[in-house]
Amino acid sequence: MKHHKRVEWTRLDNAAKIFPPTSNERDTKVFRFVCELFEGVDAAILQEALDETIEIFPLYKSVLRKGVFWYYFETSGLQPVVEEESLPVCARIYNENRRNLLFRVFYYKNRINLEIFHALSDGNGALWFMKSLLYQYLIRKYKDVFGDNLPGFDYKASISQKMDDSFLKYYTGKRLSLVIKSDRAYHIRGNRREENRIQLVEGTMSLKAVLNIAHEYNTTLTVYLTALFMYSIYKGMTERGKNRPVVLSIPVNLRNYFESESARNFFGTITIGYHFGKDSTDFHEVVKSINDSFARELTEERLKNHMERLAALEHNVFARAVPLVLKDITLQIANRINERGITAALSNVGKITMPEELAAYIRQFDVFTSARRPQICICSYGDNLVISFTSPFTDTDIQKTFFQTLSGKGMDIIIATNF
Question: Which residues on neighbouring strands pair with residue 33, listed in sequence order?
Fold first, then answer.
């Protein structure tokens, strides 16, 4: 008698629900982590490492399916295959007409790349997967060096902890207005690159040097770079454009505020704005205003309210009864309305660490994402700070202003692009 393997399924977390109906060729909702090593990548060993890592993260074996009322993850027997890089940056992964895994691992020379569809995980969850993959790769490639004395690894969450939907865990049912009013923001326009390809500009510099500059303004690295990004946008605005504020969307890792080991999505989003047409254009004043905005937005109460709003729709009896096709249309409209209040986006993954014994093999990390508007992603490893711009437009004036400002302060910057 033939036995059929039981199929398991998992609901999407609350933050993930927006990504399937709003992903397309222009905005794939895919982001990439890169680890640049000092030596070339051994594809066979990387495949062994991936085979081991995916067993530690079972959700990554899933495919995305459409039900009558909800999207859901379904376990599959598909096995990820390591390939040499051949696709455009952050190319589309999810397509409702294909049954495929929601991530890919590939390499190019000495770089290992992990790309993920955002419905599967956020940056922090994906980083745990990436670090686990690197660990498995390096202990295999340099097994003669380590012998029986393998480096320790700090991510030891259980399978259930990795699979946890932390939005539901912290949902209390608090009644809040689901409508948040926002003004229309300044929008960046430009000629799009051919075939919806993303333009990538990557700048590598000293973390300590940038921190020193931020401290001169009595602020943090994130606030300083947010202010510099907004100021770089302002320098290219028309007089008419200055009638609207520059507003950045900034994701926040909720694990820093609420206990969670989830490898799924667990992030909130804050918006930071500045009106250059009404307020001072002195950069010190811009930094001070943005610093105050961060302090106001990054409170446990505000972030908790954000989680409550996301989870409320899941528990709404009427919303649950609406067919998925209508939910998709509603989310697409809501996304367009939300986009009116956003100029650009900035995401700081923060300091990436690996076991000290592996430091001799790793040069740096990088992270960037698909973009329907200009976006900055930031991460650091050791003293290497990498700031990556992605944009759908051919123009690079904002990027030039940003990096030239840092260079003007004595910063040595290595620039790399994909064009």
Answer: 114, 367
